Amino acid sequence: xxxxxxxxxxxxxxxxxxxxxxxxxxxxxxxxxxxxxxxxxxxxxxxxxxxxxxxxxxxxxxxxxxxxxxxxxxxxxxxxxxxxxxxxxxxxxxxxxxxxxxxxxxxxxxxxxxxxxxxxxxxxxxxxxxxxxxxxxxxxxxxxxxxxxxxxxxxxxxxxxxxxxxxxxxxxxxxxxxxxxxxxxxxxxxxxxxxxxxxxxxxxxxxxxxxxxxxxxxxxxxxxxxxxxxxxxxxxxxxxxxxxxxxxxxxxxxxxxxxxxxxxxxxxxxxxxxxxxxxxxxxxxxxxxxxxxxxxxxxxxxxxxxxxxxxxxxxxxxxxxxxxxxxxxxxxxxxxxxxxxxxxxxxxxxxxxxxxxxxxxxxxxxxxxxxxxxxxxxxxxxxxxxxxxxxxxxxxxxxxxxxxxxxxxxxxxxxxxxxxxxxxxxxxxxxxxxxxxxxxxxxxxxxxxxxxxxxxxxxxxxxxxxxxxxxxxxxxxxxxxxxxxxxxxxxxxxxxxxxxxxxxxxxxxxxxxxxxxxxxxxxxxxxxxxxxxxxxxxxxxxxxxxxxxxxxxxxxxxxxxxxxxxxxxxxxxxxxxxxxxxxxxxxxxxxxxxxxxxxxx
Length: 601
Description:
about 600 residues; alpha/beta; seven-stranded parallel beta sheet
């Protein structure tokens, strides 16, 4: 159990935490100013410090094992860590890490795995698997301004300046993108206090001070990126400066379970699609996976109309999509094709990250982009029923994708191409209109009902929309408001207040394209066959939020940003998760979920 460390914000595996000392420290942070080491037991017996104040994080007496130490040796010399009531850190190694009740855990074998992408990945995953979620992970003797962003991205909370200072005394001048020999520098590329010294008077001691300042500056940059939810964008560029960082970055991208569990379902931050690695981002892969596994097309009487994306988000607000709409007139189901998202059904155009990304537009598609979008479209068409496909897409990239999918034997659908030159030319729009002649148009009511069903599918699971709101032709809901600010009501006028269509169940949140449930909606959800994201709490009535110590159990599938049903012996509530389900159960500090509405039993 930790009393002195709490996580406040999450950006994938990176965390913005608070180490509660006399003067609180925001992590990721440099630990040198507040670290006290009680000493190594290899050299002799050490007394456990009294810990009279909370000014320091005390490293308890320890025996550290280097990388590669055999398990029987570690077990023979294992330390019994005392239970103390002041801020403490325990020294463990990644292979034998275990919970000993400390606030932070220092990995003694860090120098053996930092510098090798695969080994770094394995060590961090092993340590995170064994240690409590609400404790700080500390790597000593390995941090530089160049690698600290990737360390934080992987989930490291504390570092020290030992290596950076040592390199400075060796005449190695460190920056966020390189390591220079001091004698090769004609001028100093930094404006920190240490670098205010004239170049000809700049000593190795000054160089060591500069290196420490450079780590501090980089950690400030990292913390600000985490606050903004954009550390990934920074790391995509930062990892390019050294080969092992690029390797580590890619190794973690392959760890879908580790990163997906820790990545919020939605956030304000824009997804910047500026490199090939963008296709491996959790937000991108999660959206593509849910569209092809959970979403179900309910416009069964209309053909599929594929159109290109637009720079304006959501797409329906763009001039080009307005022109497409004027030609389609609800006679076809519109799905947008885009890199890096894949395919975006019109009902999910506001759902994160479909309206929260910005791509570098050159007009040329890479093979990775073509392959990714083609695979998503192929999976989408295999899952959904259409009579035919009208591909209103330009030649470059889009047409190649459609032709690849059309040629796939598993996709037995006729494709018709209506774009002549530019998609918004009069001739192209005329061809699109002609291709839809005779097709029935769907109603505004059908569009709105299918939108809220699609959101339920995406957020809760396959079939959730029909389980909650009734299938096509048998809906037991009404919708009010103007898209994308729809309200969902039960189709029972006697259940609501005078002048309302019934009891309100949910509201569409246009900023993220999600649903926000009322208590009535949460009860319907909990009683339906739809997968329920449930948080079980102790016998109390929550107001404002549920703290982690009050959580008894939580569904493993809960992610930050998920809508959750909160229930205990004394209360039934609905809110939005601030931790993943496993973290709610594992943590002893922090807000597990915000509470929107609550009923006392």
